[in-house]
Amino acid sequence: MLNLLQHEPNQKLKLSSCDPSHPFLLIFMFLTMSACQLTEKNISYDACLAGEAPCPEVCNGEDDDEDGLIDESLSEACIVLSSLKLERGDQSSGFGRALVAVPDVTGDGTSDLLVSSSRAPAEIDYSNPEEGAVSLIDGASLQIIRTVKYGGDFGQSLAVVNFGDDNLLWCSGAPSKEGENSTFGRVLCLDFEGNVVSSLRSESGKGFGLWLSTRNNEDQNQLMISEPQWQKEGDNDEGAVGSRGRALLVSLQESNLTIDQSIEGSNPGQKIAERIISIGDSNEDGINDFLLTGYADSESEQRQVWVVSGEEGANLNRLKRFSTPEDTAGLFGESLAYGKFDSSLDYGLLAFGAPYVEGKDDALSLGRIYFTSLFGDPLGTSSARLQSETELGLGVSMVTVKLGEQELLVSAGAGIVRVIYFKDGQAKVLEEFTSLPSGIRPVLSASQTLDADGTLKVWIGLPELATVRYLSLRPASQQPTSPQPIVYE
Fold this sequence. Notes:
Elements: E1 2-4, H1 23-32, E2 49-50, E3 53-54, E4 78-81, E5 86-87, E6 95-102, E7 112-117, E8 132-137, E9 144-150, E10 158-162, E11 168-177, E12 184-190, E13 196-201, E14 212-215, E15 222-227, E16 246-253, E17 256-264, E18 276-278, E19 290-294, E20 304-308, E21 318-322, E22 335-339, E23 349-357, E24 366-373, E25 378-385, E26 397-403, E27 406-413, E28 416-423, E29 426-433, E30 443-446, E31 456-462, E32 467-474, E33 486-488
Antiparallel strand pairs: 1-33, 2-3, 4-32, 5-32, 6-7, 7-8, 8-9, 10-11, 11-12, 12-13, 14-15, 15-16, 16-17, 18-19, 19-20, 20-21, 22-23, 23-24, 24-25, 26-27, 27-28, 28-29, 30-31, 31-32
């Protein structure tokens, strides 16, 4: 049995705060002996006045008390799916294929973002690359500041890396073959004026840079580049089948991208690092480790998730291996996350997304997130039913956000965004939104700091619709009380 805290439509008074049909408001009106004037102006979200006093602020994305601030001074965290959106007219552009939140480069107190326009990975023909684009977006006005275009299916992946010494750059993968040479893909790092600072290319495997992430170090961060189709020289000569895969850890040395470490599959067919993130120290050796995907061998169709030692060495040191007997259509580990989702623990938790889990005995299929401790202890799941067998649901994308003292997991899939935390060893739903369209594969990225208005944004890319939206998260102004969970059998 899993305890879930499900959002209820009126849980946060999302109707007008002067709706006299709401029982709590009837009590409030009786105690204050004031009437709410229901006018054409305040039938929906407009603030109404109870006598001469403004309405109290509630969590709805509106300025109920008309003080120029939205959803402020609330005793509980407020999470709202904003009605604002950035849309491009051409839905075939793939706008929103990848996105990443960036610091406030415009200086207006609001974090900004980068959004790519590129074709879907399944549509890439590596021998026939297409031009892609990445746009820098003003996070306050949602206006495009500038756009950079490049060949090789540029924009398939994005990352922002602080290389130290004020070298804050953004990097993007262009994984397709370039011209007539033997290069299969390139990763470019640029400044926020759109100038290329350095690039790195691969001559050994297709799909170089399809996935990018970062590893945080004390002096400077590293860029992590995935190359799941990489083959070791000599493998084919020995009759081996399949790619080993590798991930490169890269720093910036004298304005040049430099490979610091290569994490390579131990055997052909493992195809490691289709997804890879940096996590905490799982074996307590003082070095942060990695969470990445891989396969048992070239015959396996079910993807696994591995914890790999961060210690430098020639061999892949696999510390833990996770798999599931359920049929996930090879999508186990489609998204990965790490965070202290349980504030009572002094270590982090791991999360693996599986956006399709086949239902049993005519039951509906699910989108699911699996949780374990940093040390491999299973901690249950969070699941949501799919509306269609052709969809990919909860777990398509995940991101960790810190709201006040609590780290939260935000996950999205077709038709759903869910905000999750842990308490008493169980996954609980803090908030859920089911208004996203069906038939989409959302992409998430979270701002690292609060904006000047006290909110944090989780950006949502919807490339099938050429649209970007966002969640607005505001910490509680005082310690929130824990709501009672609804228990589901």
